[in-house]
Amino acid sequence: MTRTRLSPPPLAPRALLRWSVVEPSIRAISPERVVEFGCGQGAFGARVAVGRDYLGVEPDPRSAGRAAAAIEPAGGRVVNGFPSEVDLGDPADLVCAFEVLEHIEDDAAALDEWITAVRPGGRVMISVPAYADRFGPSDVRSGHFRRYDPDHLRRLFERAGLVDVDVVVYAWPLGYLLEAVRNRRDRRFLDENPSDIEELTAASGRTGQPGSRWLGLAIRIGTAPFVLLQALNRRTGTGLVAVGTRPVAE
User: Fold this and answer.
1) pTM, rounded to two decimals
2) How many CB atoms sit inside 10 A of residue 221's CB?
3) Residue 133, exposed/middle/buried by CB under 10 A (0-12, 13-18, 19+)?
4) Maximum separation of any 2 CA atoms in the chain, in Å
5) Residue 34 half-sphere exposure toward CB, CA atoms < 13 A
6) Is 2 a residue whose pLDDT tops 60?
7) How far is C-alpha 25 from the chain's CA centre?
């Protein structure tokens, strides 16, 4: 019996803006084996896994279950746990983590750990929220420790030993409107629902994804002009995507 591959989960507006930057970069790298840390509910993983040896690692058990349902029909695998707790298998051509590093207090140590999962000559790709001075209620509710300036993120990659580092700013101008709405909403939520950062981090991977295919289609249509528009301005925005190469030992 042939297994039918399901359509990938729909993406929220900011994730669509991010995917429009991430997807061409992954195509250019053309990795055969991919490891994604913090794969959430699998919206990106279900897209990355197609035609590749893909492993998603997700510490939140509820999110991991939903990620498996989305990613396994695409041919990938999902394990529940932290990177240090699971068998990652052979070194990957690409290690990625989307909207994860800002949730980790010791981000330098996390990046050092992730790099060990990629082969020499392979790539590390991450996305994070942009600009420290934009830290607000939406970051607090999501369980973020920080946001990143482009130069800060570049130095973090280089100090970890990565080379040929490229940092792209995205989500102009729609990201500003999305953040303003979220900050207003999340300010009220935090006033009424105090939580610790671990609870907020775990919950962040379960929220924000459109609940239906029809809603996802409407979001994709509405966001499409902004996907094109953000390409006109790579100097400012609300998100960063960084790619670096693990050097080959001489």
Assistant:
1) 0.92
2) 9
3) exposed
4) 57
5) 29
6) no
7) 14
